[in-house]
Protein backbone atom coordinates (compact mmCIF):
# COMPACT_ATOMS: atom_id res chain seq x y z
CA UNK A 1 0.00 0.00 0.00
CA UNK A 2 1.32 3.41 -0.91
CA UNK A 3 3.34 4.86 1.92
CA UNK A 4 1.10 7.32 3.67
CA UNK A 5 2.35 9.44 6.51
CA UNK A 6 -0.92 10.09 8.25
CA UNK A 7 -2.96 12.26 5.91
CA UNK A 8 0.26 13.46 4.22
CA UNK A 9 2.12 11.08 1.95
CA UNK A 10 5.22 11.23 -0.12
CA UNK A 11 4.33 12.36 -3.69
CA UNK A 12 5.65 9.10 -5.14
CA UNK A 13 2.86 7.36 -3.31
CA UNK A 14 0.37 8.68 -5.87
CA UNK A 15 0.00 6.03 -8.54
CA UNK A 16 1.22 8.44 -11.18
CA UNK A 17 1.22 12.23 -11.55
CA UNK A 18 -1.05 11.92 -14.58
CA UNK A 19 -3.46 9.92 -12.53
CA UNK A 20 -4.01 12.68 -10.08
CA UNK A 21 -7.77 12.84 -10.17
CA UNK A 22 -9.06 16.41 -10.62
CA UNK A 23 -10.37 17.35 -7.25
CA UNK A 24 -14.10 18.14 -7.35
CA UNK A 25 -15.34 21.15 -5.48
CA UNK A 26 -15.19 19.96 -1.94
CA UNK A 27 -18.72 18.95 -0.96
CA UNK A 28 -17.65 17.75 2.42
CA UNK A 29 -20.35 16.42 4.65
CA UNK A 30 -19.91 18.76 7.53
CA UNK A 31 -20.22 16.49 10.40
CA UNK A 32 -23.52 16.82 12.14
CA UNK A 33 -22.12 15.12 15.17
CA UNK A 34 -22.67 17.34 18.16
CA UNK A 35 -19.18 16.96 19.49
CA UNK A 36 -15.92 17.62 17.63
CA UNK A 37 -13.22 14.99 17.57
CA UNK A 38 -10.69 15.64 20.29
CA UNK A 39 -6.95 15.52 19.64
CA UNK A 40 -6.66 11.91 20.81
CA UNK A 41 -9.35 10.76 18.38
CA UNK A 42 -7.57 12.70 15.64
CA UNK A 43 -4.20 11.06 16.46
CA UNK A 44 -5.89 7.67 16.59
CA UNK A 45 -7.33 8.33 13.14
CA UNK A 46 -3.85 9.18 11.82
CA UNK A 47 -2.60 5.84 13.22
CA UNK A 48 -5.66 3.99 11.94
CA UNK A 49 -5.03 5.32 8.44
CA UNK A 50 -1.56 3.75 8.39
CA UNK A 51 -3.08 0.36 9.18
CA UNK A 52 -5.54 0.43 6.27
CA UNK A 53 -5.23 -2.71 4.21
CA UNK A 54 -5.92 -1.18 0.81
CA UNK A 55 -4.93 2.11 -0.83
CA UNK A 56 -7.95 4.44 -0.74
CA UNK A 57 -7.04 5.99 -4.08
CA UNK A 58 -5.67 9.42 -5.02
CA UNK A 59 -8.94 11.31 -4.69
CA UNK A 60 -9.50 10.09 -1.16
CA UNK A 61 -5.86 10.77 -0.28
CA UNK A 62 -6.21 14.34 -1.50
CA UNK A 63 -9.32 14.76 0.65
CA UNK A 64 -7.48 13.38 3.68
CA UNK A 65 -4.42 15.53 3.00
CA UNK A 66 -6.58 18.66 2.74
CA UNK A 67 -8.50 17.91 5.93
CA UNK A 68 -5.30 17.08 7.78
CA UNK A 69 -3.73 20.41 6.79
CA UNK A 70 -6.94 22.36 7.50
CA UNK A 71 -7.25 20.72 10.93
CA UNK A 72 -3.66 21.55 11.82
CA UNK A 73 -3.01 24.86 10.04
CA UNK A 74 -6.42 26.27 9.12
CA UNK A 75 -7.11 27.78 5.66
CA UNK A 76 -4.53 27.16 2.91
CA UNK A 77 -1.58 29.45 3.66
CA UNK A 78 1.00 28.56 1.02
CA UNK A 79 1.56 30.04 -2.44
CA UNK A 80 -0.06 28.21 -5.35
CA UNK A 81 2.43 25.88 -7.11
CA UNK A 82 3.11 26.23 -10.83
CA UNK A 83 0.99 24.31 -13.33
CA UNK A 84 3.79 21.87 -14.10
CA UNK A 85 4.10 20.95 -10.47
CA UNK A 86 1.15 18.59 -10.84
CA UNK A 87 1.17 16.81 -7.53
CA UNK A 88 1.75 19.80 -5.28
CA UNK A 89 -0.80 21.76 -7.30
CA UNK A 90 -3.39 18.98 -6.78
CA UNK A 91 -2.66 19.04 -3.08
CA UNK A 92 -2.84 22.84 -3.00
CA UNK A 93 -6.18 22.79 -4.85
CA UNK A 94 -7.58 20.22 -2.41
CA UNK A 95 -6.56 22.22 0.62
CA UNK A 96 -7.53 25.58 -0.83
CA UNK A 97 -10.98 24.20 -1.71
CA UNK A 98 -11.76 23.89 2.01
CA UNK A 99 -11.77 27.67 2.30
CA UNK A 100 -12.41 28.80 5.86
CA UNK A 101 -13.69 25.44 7.14
CA UNK A 102 -13.07 25.64 10.91
CA UNK A 103 -10.18 23.50 12.22
CA UNK A 104 -12.50 21.58 14.57
CA UNK A 105 -14.84 20.66 11.71
CA UNK A 106 -11.93 19.61 9.52
CA UNK A 107 -10.61 17.45 12.36
CA UNK A 108 -14.01 15.82 12.86
CA UNK A 109 -14.45 15.21 9.14
CA UNK A 110 -10.98 13.67 8.98
CA UNK A 111 -11.86 11.28 11.85
CA UNK A 112 -15.21 10.43 10.22
CA UNK A 113 -13.56 9.78 6.86
CA UNK A 114 -10.87 7.49 8.34
CA UNK A 115 -13.47 5.65 10.39
CA UNK A 116 -15.57 4.97 7.31
CA UNK A 117 -12.47 3.86 5.35
CA UNK A 118 -11.42 1.52 8.17
CA UNK A 119 -14.82 -0.10 8.54
CA UNK A 120 -15.33 -0.45 4.78
CA UNK A 121 -11.79 -1.84 4.39
CA UNK A 122 -12.40 -4.35 7.18
CA UNK A 123 -15.91 -5.26 5.94
CA UNK A 124 -14.59 -5.60 2.36
CA UNK A 125 -12.03 -8.04 3.71
CA UNK A 126 -14.66 -9.76 5.79
CA UNK A 127 -17.48 -10.66 3.43
CA UNK A 128 -16.17 -13.02 0.78
CA UNK A 129 -18.20 -13.20 -2.50
CA UNK A 130 -20.81 -15.95 -2.17
CA UNK A 131 -19.98 -16.33 1.49
CA UNK A 132 -22.81 -17.27 3.78
CA UNK A 133 -24.25 -13.99 5.08
CA UNK A 134 -23.24 -15.06 8.56
CA UNK A 135 -19.67 -15.88 7.52
CA UNK A 136 -17.45 -12.87 8.21
CA UNK A 137 -13.91 -11.98 9.14
CA UNK A 138 -10.65 -12.17 7.26
CA UNK A 139 -8.61 -15.28 6.64
CA UNK A 140 -6.83 -14.88 9.99
CA UNK A 141 -9.85 -13.85 12.06
CA UNK A 142 -12.94 -15.85 11.12
CA UNK A 143 -16.22 -14.56 12.53
CA UNK A 144 -19.43 -16.58 12.43
CA UNK A 145 -22.72 -15.89 14.13
CA UNK A 146 -25.53 -18.40 14.63
CA UNK A 147 -27.75 -19.85 17.37
CA UNK A 148 -27.28 -16.70 19.44
CA UNK A 149 -23.50 -17.16 19.54
CA UNK A 150 -20.95 -14.97 17.70
CA UNK A 151 -17.69 -16.88 17.42
CA UNK A 152 -14.41 -15.08 16.74
CA UNK A 153 -11.79 -17.64 15.74
CA UNK A 154 -8.06 -16.94 15.42
CA UNK A 155 -7.17 -18.73 12.22
CA UNK A 156 -3.38 -18.60 11.70
CA UNK A 157 -2.46 -22.12 12.80
CA UNK A 158 0.84 -22.24 10.95
CA UNK A 159 2.00 -19.40 13.18
CA UNK A 160 0.31 -20.76 16.32
CA UNK A 161 -2.33 -18.04 15.93
CA UNK A 162 0.19 -15.30 16.75
CA UNK A 163 -1.63 -11.96 16.54
CA UNK A 164 -0.50 -9.52 13.84
CA UNK A 165 -1.26 -5.80 13.93
CA UNK A 166 -3.93 -6.40 11.31
CA UNK A 167 -5.50 -9.13 13.44
CA UNK A 168 -5.66 -6.79 16.45
CA UNK A 169 -7.65 -4.41 14.25
CA UNK A 170 -9.89 -7.19 12.99
CA UNK A 171 -10.60 -8.51 16.49
CA UNK A 172 -11.50 -4.95 17.57
CA UNK A 173 -13.90 -4.63 14.63
CA UNK A 174 -15.32 -8.11 15.28
CA UNK A 175 -15.98 -7.28 18.94
CA UNK A 176 -17.59 -3.95 18.00
CA UNK A 177 -19.85 -5.76 15.51
CA UNK A 178 -20.64 -8.51 18.04
CA UNK A 179 -21.62 -5.92 20.66
CA UNK A 180 -24.35 -4.73 18.27
CA UNK A 181 -25.48 -7.95 16.57
CA UNK A 182 -28.39 -10.13 17.67
CA UNK A 183 -26.22 -12.71 19.44
CA UNK A 184 -26.51 -13.30 23.19
CA UNK A 185 -22.95 -14.39 23.92
CA UNK A 186 -19.57 -13.99 22.17
CA UNK A 187 -16.82 -16.58 22.07
CA UNK A 188 -13.09 -16.24 21.30
CA UNK A 189 -11.22 -19.40 20.33
CA UNK A 190 -8.33 -20.65 18.19
CA UNK A 191 -8.07 -22.93 15.19
CA UNK A 192 -5.41 -25.61 15.19
CA UNK A 193 -3.31 -27.01 18.01
CA UNK A 194 -2.74 -23.62 19.67
CA UNK A 195 -5.22 -21.18 21.15
CA UNK A 196 -2.80 -18.30 20.56
CA UNK A 197 0.94 -17.70 20.91
CA UNK A 198 0.42 -14.05 21.78
CA UNK A 199 1.75 -10.98 20.06
CA UNK A 200 3.42 -11.69 16.75
CA UNK A 201 7.02 -10.84 17.59
CA UNK A 202 7.57 -9.42 14.11
CA UNK A 203 4.88 -6.78 14.64
CA UNK A 204 7.41 -4.07 15.31
CA UNK A 205 8.90 -4.67 11.90
CA UNK A 206 5.54 -4.14 10.23
CA UNK A 207 4.41 -1.03 12.14
CA UNK A 208 5.26 2.05 10.03
CA UNK A 209 7.84 4.71 10.82
CA UNK A 210 10.85 4.97 13.09
CA UNK A 211 11.06 3.33 16.51
CA UNK A 212 9.32 6.24 18.27
CA UNK A 213 6.41 6.08 15.85
CA UNK A 214 6.24 2.28 16.09
CA UNK A 215 6.15 2.47 19.88
CA UNK A 216 3.47 5.16 19.78
CA UNK A 217 1.20 3.38 17.30
CA UNK A 218 1.83 0.01 18.97
CA UNK A 219 0.78 1.52 22.30
CA UNK A 220 -2.39 3.04 20.82
CA UNK A 221 -3.26 -0.26 19.16
CA UNK A 222 -2.70 -2.27 22.35
CA UNK A 223 -4.65 0.22 24.49
CA UNK A 224 -7.60 0.18 22.08
CA UNK A 225 -7.49 -3.61 21.82
CA UNK A 226 -7.59 -4.18 25.59
CA UNK A 227 -10.19 -1.39 26.01
CA UNK A 228 -12.51 -3.35 23.72
CA UNK A 229 -12.41 -6.27 26.15
CA UNK A 230 -12.94 -3.97 29.15
CA UNK A 231 -15.98 -2.36 27.52
CA UNK A 232 -17.47 -5.39 25.78
CA UNK A 233 -21.13 -5.36 26.88
CA UNK A 234 -22.15 -8.99 26.41
CA UNK A 235 -21.08 -12.21 28.14
CA UNK A 236 -17.64 -13.06 26.66
CA UNK A 237 -16.30 -16.60 26.84
CA UNK A 238 -12.85 -17.99 25.95
CA UNK A 239 -12.72 -21.51 24.54
CA UNK A 240 -9.05 -22.33 25.06
CA UNK A 241 -8.42 -25.21 22.68
CA UNK A 242 -4.64 -25.44 23.25
CA UNK A 243 -1.58 -23.60 24.59
CA UNK A 244 -2.02 -19.88 25.20
CA UNK A 245 0.84 -17.37 25.46
CA UNK A 246 1.23 -13.71 26.35
CA UNK A 247 -1.60 -11.31 25.63
CA UNK A 248 -4.02 -14.16 24.88
CA UNK A 249 -3.54 -15.18 28.54
CA UNK A 250 -3.50 -11.76 30.19
CA UNK A 251 -6.84 -10.63 28.70
CA UNK A 252 -8.52 -13.76 30.11
CA UNK A 253 -9.00 -11.80 33.32
CA UNK A 254 -11.49 -9.67 31.35
CA UNK A 255 -13.60 -12.61 30.16
CA UNK A 256 -16.77 -13.84 31.87
CA UNK A 257 -15.89 -17.53 31.59
CA UNK A 258 -12.80 -19.46 30.44
CA UNK A 259 -13.24 -23.09 29.34
CA UNK A 260 -10.04 -25.00 28.59
CA UNK A 261 -9.01 -28.27 27.07
CA UNK A 262 -6.72 -30.28 29.35
CA UNK A 263 -4.15 -29.80 26.56
CA UNK A 264 -4.09 -26.07 27.18
CA UNK A 265 -1.24 -24.33 28.98
CA UNK A 266 -1.02 -20.70 30.13
CA UNK A 267 2.27 -18.83 29.79
CA UNK A 268 3.12 -15.14 30.26
CA UNK A 269 6.85 -14.86 29.45
CA UNK A 270 7.04 -11.09 29.71
CA UNK A 271 10.28 -10.69 31.60
CA UNK A 272 11.98 -13.25 29.35
CA UNK A 273 11.04 -10.91 26.51
CA UNK A 274 12.11 -7.76 28.32
CA UNK A 275 8.45 -6.75 28.55
CA UNK A 276 5.94 -6.19 31.35
CA UNK A 277 2.32 -7.26 32.00
CA UNK A 278 -0.55 -6.02 29.84
CA UNK A 279 -4.24 -6.81 29.33
CA UNK A 280 -4.96 -5.46 32.84
CA UNK A 281 -3.27 -8.58 34.25
CA UNK A 282 -1.18 -6.53 36.70
CA UNK A 283 -4.51 -5.85 38.44
CA UNK A 284 -6.75 -8.80 37.51
CA UNK A 285 -4.29 -11.64 38.16
CA UNK A 286 -3.53 -10.72 41.78
CA UNK A 287 -7.27 -10.32 42.29
CA UNK A 288 -8.01 -13.70 40.70
CA UNK A 289 -5.20 -15.88 42.00
CA UNK A 290 -3.54 -13.95 44.82
CA UNK A 291 -0.31 -11.98 44.73
CA UNK A 292 2.14 -14.87 45.01
CA UNK A 293 0.67 -16.94 42.20
CA UNK A 294 0.20 -13.85 40.03
CA UNK A 295 3.84 -12.86 40.49
CA UNK A 296 4.99 -16.40 39.69
CA UNK A 297 3.30 -16.01 36.28
CA UNK A 298 3.88 -12.36 35.50
CA UNK A 299 7.41 -11.90 36.87
CA UNK A 300 8.93 -15.36 36.71
CA UNK A 301 7.00 -16.65 33.67
CA UNK A 302 5.76 -19.86 35.28
CA UNK A 303 3.76 -21.81 32.73
CA UNK A 304 0.53 -23.28 34.15
CA UNK A 305 -1.23 -26.42 33.08
CA UNK A 306 -4.97 -26.13 32.53
CA UNK A 307 -5.56 -27.82 35.89
CA UNK A 308 -3.26 -25.36 37.70
CA UNK A 309 -4.88 -22.39 35.92
CA UNK A 310 -8.28 -23.69 37.02
CA UNK A 311 -7.11 -24.20 40.59
CA UNK A 312 -5.86 -20.60 40.58
CA UNK A 313 -9.16 -19.23 39.27
CA UNK A 314 -7.99 -18.12 35.82
CA UNK A 315 -9.86 -20.98 34.13
CA UNK A 316 -13.51 -21.70 34.94
CA UNK A 317 -13.51 -25.39 33.99
CA UNK A 318 -11.22 -27.93 32.28
CA UNK A 319 -12.47 -30.64 29.91
CA UNK A 320 -10.76 -33.74 28.50
CA UNK A 321 -9.43 -32.79 25.07
CA UNK A 322 -11.22 -35.74 23.48
CA UNK A 323 -14.65 -34.37 24.42
CA UNK A 324 -13.74 -30.68 24.81
CA UNK A 325 -15.41 -29.20 21.75
CA UNK A 326 -18.59 -31.25 22.10
CA UNK A 327 -19.04 -30.57 25.79
CA UNK A 328 -18.18 -26.89 25.64
CA UNK A 329 -20.35 -26.06 22.64
CA UNK A 330 -23.29 -27.94 24.15
CA UNK A 331 -22.86 -25.79 27.23
CA UNK A 332 -22.53 -22.58 25.22
CA UNK A 333 -25.66 -23.32 23.18
CA UNK A 334 -27.55 -23.62 26.45
CA UNK A 335 -26.05 -20.34 27.67
CA UNK A 336 -27.10 -18.61 24.47
CA UNK A 337 -30.74 -19.21 25.38
CA UNK A 338 -30.64 -16.83 28.38
CA UNK A 339 -32.69 -13.65 27.87
CA UNK A 340 -30.15 -11.44 26.04
CA UNK A 341 -30.89 -8.19 27.84
CA UNK A 342 -30.72 -9.81 31.26
CA UNK A 343 -27.43 -11.40 30.29
CA UNK A 344 -26.02 -8.12 29.03
CA UNK A 345 -27.25 -6.09 32.00
CA UNK A 346 -25.98 -8.62 34.53
CA UNK A 347 -22.54 -8.65 32.85
CA UNK A 348 -22.44 -4.88 32.84
CA UNK A 349 -23.43 -4.34 36.47
CA UNK A 350 -20.57 -6.63 37.49
CA UNK A 351 -18.06 -4.94 35.12
CA UNK A 352 -19.15 -1.37 35.80
CA UNK A 353 -17.85 -1.44 39.39
CA UNK A 354 -14.31 -1.67 38.01
CA UNK A 355 -14.46 -0.27 34.48
CA UNK A 356 -12.80 3.03 35.33
CA UNK A 357 -10.09 1.26 37.29
CA UNK A 358 -9.45 -1.19 34.45
CA UNK A 359 -9.02 1.62 31.92
CA UNK A 360 -6.55 3.32 34.24
CA UNK A 361 -4.63 0.03 34.64
CA UNK A 362 -4.64 -0.44 30.86
CA UNK A 363 -3.26 3.06 30.26
CA UNK A 364 -0.46 2.60 32.80
CA UNK A 365 0.48 -0.89 31.53
CA UNK A 366 0.72 0.52 27.98
CA UNK A 367 2.82 3.47 29.16
CA UNK A 368 5.30 1.12 30.85
CA UNK A 369 5.34 -1.24 27.87
CA UNK A 370 6.13 1.62 25.52
CA UNK A 371 9.29 2.19 27.55
CA UNK A 372 10.09 -1.54 27.53
CA UNK A 373 9.72 -1.77 23.75
CA UNK A 374 12.66 0.66 23.45
CA UNK A 375 14.86 -1.33 25.83
CA UNK A 376 17.87 -3.43 24.92
CA UNK A 377 16.31 -6.34 26.81
CA UNK A 378 13.24 -6.38 24.56
CA UNK A 379 15.09 -5.87 21.30
CA UNK A 380 17.62 -8.60 22.17
CA UNK A 381 14.86 -11.01 23.19
CA UNK A 382 13.00 -10.55 19.90
CA UNK A 383 16.20 -10.88 17.85
CA UNK A 384 17.08 -13.96 19.90
CA UNK A 385 13.71 -15.52 19.12
CA UNK A 386 14.00 -15.05 15.39
CA UNK A 387 17.71 -15.71 15.06
CA UNK A 388 17.95 -18.83 17.21
CA UNK A 389 14.21 -19.52 17.02
CA UNK A 390 14.56 -19.93 20.72
CA UNK A 391 11.63 -21.57 22.39
CA UNK A 392 10.30 -20.01 25.53
C1 LIG B 1 0.91 -4.01 18.75
C2 LIG B 1 1.79 -4.51 19.86
C3 LIG B 1 0.99 -5.21 20.93
C4 LIG B 1 1.94 -5.88 21.92
C5 LIG B 1 1.19 -6.69 22.93
C6 LIG B 1 2.14 -7.43 23.83
C7 LIG B 1 1.87 -8.70 24.12
C8 LIG B 1 2.78 -9.52 24.95
C9 LIG B 1 2.93 -10.90 24.41
O1 LIG B 1 2.05 -11.46 23.80
S1 LIG B 1 4.43 -11.61 24.76
C10 LIG B 1 4.32 -13.25 24.12
C11 LIG B 1 4.74 -13.30 22.69
N1 LIG B 1 4.78 -14.68 22.24
C12 LIG B 1 5.86 -15.46 22.34
O2 LIG B 1 6.87 -15.05 22.84
C13 LIG B 1 5.78 -16.87 21.82
C14 LIG B 1 6.85 -17.09 20.78
N2 LIG B 1 6.70 -18.41 20.19
C15 LIG B 1 7.28 -19.49 20.77
O3 LIG B 1 7.89 -19.46 21.80
C16 LIG B 1 7.04 -20.80 20.08
O4 LIG B 1 6.70 -20.52 18.74
C17 LIG B 1 5.88 -21.59 20.72
C18 LIG B 1 6.31 -22.09 22.08
C19 LIG B 1 4.64 -20.72 20.84
C20 LIG B 1 5.54 -22.78 19.80
O5 LIG B 1 6.74 -23.52 19.56
P1 LIG B 1 6.69 -24.71 18.51
O6 LIG B 1 8.08 -25.27 18.43
O7 LIG B 1 5.53 -25.60 18.82
O8 LIG B 1 6.34 -24.02 17.13
P2 LIG B 1 7.30 -23.00 16.33
O9 LIG B 1 8.10 -22.19 17.27
O10 LIG B 1 8.00 -23.75 15.25
O11 LIG B 1 6.19 -21.99 15.68
C21 LIG B 1 5.57 -22.30 14.42
C22 LIG B 1 5.70 -21.06 13.60
O12 LIG B 1 4.95 -20.00 14.26
C23 LIG B 1 5.83 -18.90 14.46
N3 LIG B 1 5.45 -18.25 15.71
C24 LIG B 1 5.01 -18.83 16.84
N4 LIG B 1 4.75 -17.91 17.78
C25 LIG B 1 5.03 -16.70 17.23
C26 LIG B 1 4.95 -15.35 17.69
N5 LIG B 1 4.49 -15.04 18.91
N6 LIG B 1 5.32 -14.35 16.85
C27 LIG B 1 5.76 -14.65 15.61
N7 LIG B 1 5.87 -15.92 15.08
C28 LIG B 1 5.49 -16.91 15.91
C29 LIG B 1 7.21 -19.48 14.53
O13 LIG B 1 8.16 -18.48 14.26
C30 LIG B 1 7.12 -20.54 13.47
O14 LIG B 1 7.18 -19.88 12.22
P3 LIG B 1 8.09 -20.53 11.05
O15 LIG B 1 7.48 -21.89 10.81
O16 LIG B 1 7.92 -19.58 9.93
O17 LIG B 1 9.48 -20.62 11.60
Describe it for me?
Residues 38-123 form the ACB domain. Its EC number is 5.3.3.8. InterPro entries: Acyl-CoA-binding_protein, Acyl-CoA-binding_sf, ClpP/crotonase-like_dom_sf, ECH/Chromodomain_protein, Enoyl-CoA_hydra/iso, Enoyl-CoA_hydra_C, FERM/acyl-CoA-bd_prot_sf. In the C-terminal section; belongs to the enoyl-CoA hydratase/isomerase family. Its main location: mitochondrion. With 392 residues, the protein is an alpha/beta fold. It has two domains: 39-119, Up-down Bundle (Acyl-CoA Binding Protein), CATH 1.20.80; 141-391, 2-enoyl-CoA Hydratase, Chain A, domain 1 (Alpha-Beta Complex), CATH 3.90.226.10. It has 15 helices and twelve strands. The strands form three sheets. Strands 3-4-5-6-7-9-12 form a seven-stranded mixed β-sheet, sandwiched between helices. A hairpin with a 2-residue loop joins strand 1 and strand 2 (8-9). Helix 1 (39-50) runs parallel beside helix 4, helix 2 (58-73) crosses helix 3 and helix 7 (211-231) packs antiparallel against helix 14 (355-372). The longest helix has 24 residues, at 103-126. Residues 1-35 and 123-135 have low confidence and may be disordered. Residues 159-160, 162, 165, 168, 197-203, 218, 221-222, 245-247, 269, 273, 275, 278, 391-392 line the site of ligand L24GHEU4.
Task: Produce the secondary structure layout.
Layout: E1 4-5, E2 8-9, H1 39-50, H2 58-73, H3 86-96, H4 103-126, E3 136-137, E4 141-146, E5 149-154, H5 165-180, E6 185-190, H6 203-206, H7 211-231, E7 236-240, E8 244-245, H8 247-250, E9 257-261, E10 265-267, H9 281-289, H10 291-298, E11 304-305, H11 306-311, E12 317-319, H12 324-335, H13 340-352, H14 355-372, H15 376-388
Parallel strand pairs: 5-6, 6-7, 7-9, 8-10, 9-12
Antiparallel strand pairs: 1-2, 3-4, 4-5, 10-11
Helix pairs in contact: 1-4, 2-3, 2-4, 5-7, 7-14, 9-10
Amino acid sequence: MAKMLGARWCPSALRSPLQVISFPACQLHVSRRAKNADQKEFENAVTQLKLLKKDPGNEMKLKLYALYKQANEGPCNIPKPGVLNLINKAKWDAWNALGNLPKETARQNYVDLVTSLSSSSASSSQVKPGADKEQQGSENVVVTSEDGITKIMLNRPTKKNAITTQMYQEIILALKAASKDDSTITVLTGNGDYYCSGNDLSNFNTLPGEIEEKVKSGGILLRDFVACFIDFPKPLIAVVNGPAVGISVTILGLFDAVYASDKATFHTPFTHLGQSPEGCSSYTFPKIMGLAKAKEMLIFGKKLTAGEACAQGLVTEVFPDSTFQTEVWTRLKAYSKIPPNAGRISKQIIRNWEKEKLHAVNAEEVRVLQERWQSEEFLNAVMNFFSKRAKL
